Amino acid sequence: MNLTTKSQSETERFGQKLSAKLNGGDILLLSGDLGAGKTSLVKGIAKGLGIKHEITSPTFTLMNVYQINNKQLTINKLIHIDTYRLKDEKELLEIGVEDYLGKPDTICVIEWPEKITNLLKKYKTTSTHLEHGDKPEQRK
């Protein structure tokens, strides 16, 4: 599927719609250049899941864990991982990433997944590529 959004807020709204299609255990891989809209998409997913916290990219912390307090959902965590500054997969393992990957009560969204392909081999994942569009705010 190809989709073009015209603004950051439209990318976030798409993330909100996408959240309704995600299930516990899902691992969504987001690739694309810096500024391509990966974190904006995660902001929308979080909003769609009812998360009220400000969503920021975990570029320096590697992983943010957000609790989902929606009794209508069987999912209770959104894990946002950013491997842009990752030295190696061992770093993620040391902070407990395997406690979350593929767990039935958790959705994981990973930015820059190409840095951890070996770690992800044993999991079912869905990949999405984001890129800059023809206009400054446009994303594909």
Quick structural gist:
The chain is α/β, with parallel strands linked by helices and 140 residues long. It has helices at 8-19, 38-48, 89-94, 117-120; strands at residues 27-31, 63-67, 77-82, 106-111, 126-129.
Considering the chains and any ligands shown, give keywords for the structure.
24% helix; globular; alpha/beta; 140 residues; 5 strands
Largest sheet: 5 strands, mixed
Structural class: alpha/beta
Q: What is the residue-averaged pLDDT?
A: 91
- Gross geometry: globular
Order of helices and strands: HEHEEHEHE
Uncertain stretches of 5 or more adjacent residues: none
* Ends distance: 10 Å
Strand order of the largest sheet: 2-3-4-1-5
Count of DSSP E strands? 5
Give the helices and strands, then pairings.
Elements (H helix, E strand, L loop, with lengths): L7 H12 L7 E5 L6 H11 L14 E5 L9 E6 L6 H6 L11 E6 L5 H4 L5 E4 L11
Parallel strand pairs: 1-4, 1-5, 3-4
Antiparallel strand pairs: 2-3
Helix pairs in contact: 1-2
Question: What does this entry look like structurally?
Answer:
This protein has 140 residues and is of the alpha/beta class. Helix content is 24%, strand content 19%. It has helices spanning 8-19, 38-48, 89-94, 117-120; strands at residues 27-31, 63-67, 77-82, 106-111, 126-129. The protein has a five-stranded mixed sheet, with helices on one face. The protein is globular. The model has no long low-confidence stretch (mean pLDDT 91).
